[in-house]
Write a structure and sequence with these properties.
The protein contains 5 helices and 3 strands. It is an alpha+beta fold. The chain is elongated, with a radius of gyration of 17 Å.
Length: 105
């Protein structure tokens, strides 16, 4: 018996998750975090494999990584707990928005 069947969730319902819905929810959660300038979330679902999530988080200038990284970690842990019948693999890629010199003509 699979984990989904033990929880009373049909296998068919587990396989038919729209990847855009969790991606939009994660994007909204990441946008609300302090120190995050931009983000992008991709959720890939392949038949017969566990879903994979890719989070690209860009920090605001002068924001240390230690101040921003606990937020995406907490969001990915929440996503993994929300998708309990399935195992989810998530990868966070942090980067920073560069200090741009103003364009002068």
């Amino acid at each position: 018996m699979t984990a989904a069947a033990q929880r009373g969730v049909s296998e068919r319902a587990v396989r038919r998750v729209r990847p855009r819905a969790p991606a939009e929810a994660l994007t909204a959660r990441l946008s609300a975090l302090p120190g995050v300038a931009r983000n992008r979330v991709r959720v890939l679902t392949r038949p017969g494999q566990r879903p994979e999530g890719g989070l690209r988080v860009r920090r605001e200038p002068d924001t240390p990584p230690d101040a921003v990284l606990p937020g995406p970690r907490a969001v990915t842990e929440e996503a993994e707990q929300a998708a309990v019948p399935c195992e989810v693999r998530a990868r966070v890629r942090p980067s920073a928005v560069s200090h741009r010199v103003p364009y002068v003509r």
